[in-house]
Amino acid sequence: MYNPLLYLIGFFFEIIELNIKLIIKFFIKTSDTVSLTKN
Asked: Whole-structure pTM over 0.85, yes or no?
């Protein structure tokens, strides 16, 4: 039996995972620039 709700939930979590990875990359970049300006 095919459940479209499960498909939507999986899609939603994939988007969240991608966003988390992008946010982590962004924070690493900003922390790198902050440490560079501090030194």
From this structure: no
